[in-house]
Write a structure and sequence with these properties.
The structure is a single chain. The chain is mainly β. The protein has a single domain, classed as Porin (Beta Barrel), CATH 2.40.160.210. The protein contains 3 helices and 12 strands, in the order E-H-E-E-E-E-E-E-H-H-E-E-E-E-E. It has helices at 20-35, 158-164, 168-175; strands at residues 2-6, 39-46, 55-65, 69-78, 81-91, 131-137, 143-149, 181-184, 186-191, 200-210, 213-221, 227-238. Strands 1, 2, 3, 4, 5, 6, 7, 8, 9, 10, 11 and 12 form a 12-stranded antiparallel sheet that branches. Helix 1 packs antiparallel against helix 2.
Length: 242
Amino acid sequence: MRWYLPVTPGICSGLGSLFGGCGLGAAIEALESVTQRPLIWACAQYLNYTKPPSVVDLDIRIGAAGHTTTQARVVGQVGETEIFTVIASLGERSFPEEGQWVTFPDVLPPDQCPPREIRIDLQNTISTRLEQRIASDEEFSGRMALWMRVPELLEMSSTALAVLGDFVPMGLGRTMHSEINSNSLDNTLRVTNIVPTEWVLVDVRVEAVARGFGHGHIYLWSQDGTLMATASQSAMIRTPKA
């Protein structure tokens, strides 16, 4: 019931601290391993920053375990400092009907989309482990879509989707007319149907910005148009310091 996450540059953001999606992904990986059940949904609240070479203790607490579902919580701490808290439900049930009512965006396949150019130096961060191609990016529209691939990933998983679902701040940066920085306050991942896929379409939809905070959703699609998961986030927006 106790797992450990060494914080290394390869799981950090451009600010040099643990990338929120990697913290959520680590908690999901631990929960699925302990409960032996697939994730239904998980929500992370990000409380504090932590940087290399710290080690985050993941303390798993099972709140309720039934015949088909488990409700659980993970507290991630460095020493006495709580870095993030994750609550989650895991399980699987048999039901005769299923469906998908949102539609796959009209975008070109990954091999026909241009690479995303990163303007700032993000060496030794999570970005160096992602291949990114721009599928749709109309500036200031609140919508953008990127094909993303993790070359070292062996198969698609809830853990990987947690990382790819943590890019609402990127969408906010393309939506605002001012130059901004933003950091996530939370990340909620809801898993529908994970299928084998090399690339994931990260379909970012910024909904609103108000009172210094931005809010948005991400739809995570496989190459064949299957909606694998949705993610939602709120983020604090700042003007970069001179």
